[in-house]
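Please fill in the sequence for the structure shown.

STRUCTURE ENCODING:
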C-alpha cells in the first residue's frame, strides 16, 4: 500500500444569482506517519499556475490508515476566470521526508464540470466520512459514490445507534442528475436524535452481485465528544513557581477539552479558620480557564499549619446536586486524619446522570479501609433511578497491588479505569478472572491516584493518559495527573 493514495476527486460547478462557483474536492487515504504530518494537494487549472491546497484529517480507517479531505470553492465574483479542468498530485510531508503520488509521473486530471470520479480499482466509496456527531445534531447525511460500469441497482446502509444490540437498514436515493460518465451518487439521511454514537456499513447491489464496504472490517463510526475526566493532587501550595504552575494546569484543561476535574490538596489561606476564597487554588485555576466551570469545593483540615486543605470538583455541566461529607472517624479540623469527600451529580448529554466523587483518603495504616467503606456506602446510597454510573476519583493513598488496592478489587464493585484502558490483559486478570498472582504484575506500578468506576455503570473508559510529567505540560505537583475519556457502553 502506498503512503498516500487518491480515493476520489470532484470537479463541479454551481451557480447563484451573484456568481458561479467551482468546487474541487479530493478524498485521500494516508499512512499515519506522526501527528505533525502535512497532507496536501498540489494543483493547477487552465492558467497553469500551481497552488497548494491543505487537506484535513477526517477519521481513522479500519486498516490503521487515515482518511483526509481537501476542499476549495472558487468564485468568479471577483472577475477572475474559474480554473476549469485541473491537473494535480498528492504530497505527504512528515518528520523525515516527503512522499508524492503524481500518478506515475503523469499527474492526475479532473476535467471541468466532471462531477465525482473514483480512483482506479474502486467500485464504491463513502464520501461522507467523519468521526464526530456535533452537539445538537439530529441527522447524519450519507453520500456514496459507485462506479457507473457496475450499474448498481440499490445502495443500502446497515446501521446501529446502540452498539449493534439492534440494527436498521436504510435505502439510499440515487442522484439522477449526475453526468453519465461520472460516479453514481447515492444519498441518505439517518436520524441520530439522542444517540451518542452511530455505526454503519454500506452494501450496493447490482446484477453482478453484492459489494460491501465496512471500512476495512471496522465499520464507519461517528460519536459525540467523550466525557473527559482529569484527576490531580495540587500539593497544597508547596510548589516552586506556584502561580506559573496553576496557569499551566488551566492551560492543559483548556487544550485537552476536559469536562470534569477532580482536585485534591486544594489549599486556601487559613485566615483563623475562615478561609480565603481569593487564594483557593481550585478557584484560581477555574478563573484562568477560557470558560470557567461550575465549581464545588470543601475543606477537611488544617494543612501545612497555614492552609485550609480540601478537595474540589470542576464541571462543564451544571450540578444537579453537590454535597460533601466526612468519611473519616475524625472530624477535627486540626487533625490530618480528618478526611472529607465532595460529590457532584451531573447530567452528561447523550450519556445520562453520573455521580462524581473527589476524594483524598488516608494511608492504609491511618484508616483507609474504614474511609473507603464509608465512601462506598455513601456512593451506593446515591445509585438507582436515573443514576447508573459512579466515578470515585482522586488520591486514595494506596499503591496498586497493595492491601488497600486488594480491598477495592476483592469488593468486586469498583474497577480501576486507568488499568482498563492501558493494560487490558492485566485488567482481566485482576477484575475478571481474579488471578491469585495478579498483585505481582503490579510490582512496578506506583500509582496512588485512581478513577474507580462501579462495575455496573453505563460507561466504559476509552483512553487514559498521564499528564503533568517532564514531557507533557511539565511538573506541577508531587503527583502526576491522569486524564481519562469515557463513553456509553
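FILLED IN BY: designer on duty
SEQUENCE:
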Amino acid at each position: 500500500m502506498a503512503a498516500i493514495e487518491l480515493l476520489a476527486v470532484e470537479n463541479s460547478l454551481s451557480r447563484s444569482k451573484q456568481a458561479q462557483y467551482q468546487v474541487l474536492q479530493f478524498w485521500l487515504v494516508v499512512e499515519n506517519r506522526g501527528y505533525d504530518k502535512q497532507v496536501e494537494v498540489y494543483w493547477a487549472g487552465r492558467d497553469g499556475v500551481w497552488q497548494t491546497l491543505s487537506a484535513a484529517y477526517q477519521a481513522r480507517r479500519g486498516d490503521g490508515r487515515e482518511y483526509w479531505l481537501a476542499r476549495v470553492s472558487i468564485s468568479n465574483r471577483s472577475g477572475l476566470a474559474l480554473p476549469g479542468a485541473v491537473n494535480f498530485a498528492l504530497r505527504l510531508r512528515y518528520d523525515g521526508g516527503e512522499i508524492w503520488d503524481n500518478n506515475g509521473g503523469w499527474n492526475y486530471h479532473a476535467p471541468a464540470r466532471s462531477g465525482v470520479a473514483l480512483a482506479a480499482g474502486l467500485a464504491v466509496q463513502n464520501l461522507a466520512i467523519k468521526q464526530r456527531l456535533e452537539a445538537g445534531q439530529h441527522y447524519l447525511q450519507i453520500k456514496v459514490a459507485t462506479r457507473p460500469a457496475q450499474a448498481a441497482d440499490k445502495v443500502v446502509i446497515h446501521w446501529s445507534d446502540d452498539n449493534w444490540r439492534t440494527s436498521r437498514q436504510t435505502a439510499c436515493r440515487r442522484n439522477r442528475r449526475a453526468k453519465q460518465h461520472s460516479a453514481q451518487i447515492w444519498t441518505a439521511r439517518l436520524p441520530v436524535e439522542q444517540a451518542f454514537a452511530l455505526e454503519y456499513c454500506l452494501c450496493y447491489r447490482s446484477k453482478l452481485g453484492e459489494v460491501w464496504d465496512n471500512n476495512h472490517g471496522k465499520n464507519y463510526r461517528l460519536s459525540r465528544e467523550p466525557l473527559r475526566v482529569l484527576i490531580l493532587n495540587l500539593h497544597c501550595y508547596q510548589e516552586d513557581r506556584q502561580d506559573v504552575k496553576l496557569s499551566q494546569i488551566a492551560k492543559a484543561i483548556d487544550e485537552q477539552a476536559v469536562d470534569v476535574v477532580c482536585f485534591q490538596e486544594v489549599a486556601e489561606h487559613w485566615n483563623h479558620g475562615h478561609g480565603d476564597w481569593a487564594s483557593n487554588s481550585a478557584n484560581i485555576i477555574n478563573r484562568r480557564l477560557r470558560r470557567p466551570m461550575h465549581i464545588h469545593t470543601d475543606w477537611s483540615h488544617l494543612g501545612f499549619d497555614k492552609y485550609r486543605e480540601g478537595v474540589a470538583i470542576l464541571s462543564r455541566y451544571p450540578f444537579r446536586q453537590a454535597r460533601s461529607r466526612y468519611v473519616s472517624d475524625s472530624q477535627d479540623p486540626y487533625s490530618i486524619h480528618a478526611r472529607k469527600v465532595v460529590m457532584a451529580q451531573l447530567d452528561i448529554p447523550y450519556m445520562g446522570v453520573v455521580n462524581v466523587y473527589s476524594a483524598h483518603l488516608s494511608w492504609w495504616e491511618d484508616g483507609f479501609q474504614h474511609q473507603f467503606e464509608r465512601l462506598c456506602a455513601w456512593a451506593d446510597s446515591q445509585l438507582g433511578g436515573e443514576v447508573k454510573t459512579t466515578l470515585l476519583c482522586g488520591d486514595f493513598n494506596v499503591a496498586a497491588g497493595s492491601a488497600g488496592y486488594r480491598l477495592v478489587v476483592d469488593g468486586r464493585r469498583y474497577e480501576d479505569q486507568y488499568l482498563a484502558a492501558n493494560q487490558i490483559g492485566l485488567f482481566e486478570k485482576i477484575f475478571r478472572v481474579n488471578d491469585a498472582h495478579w498483585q505481582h504484575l503490579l510490582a512496578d506500578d506506583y500509582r496512588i491516584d485512581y478513577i474507580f468506576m462501579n462495575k455496573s455503570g453505563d460507561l466504559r473508559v476509552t483512553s487514559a493518559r498521564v499528564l503533568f510529567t517532564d514531557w507533557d505540560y511539565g511538573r506541577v505537583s508531587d503527583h502526576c495527573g491522569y486524564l481519562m475519556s469515557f463513553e456509553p457502553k
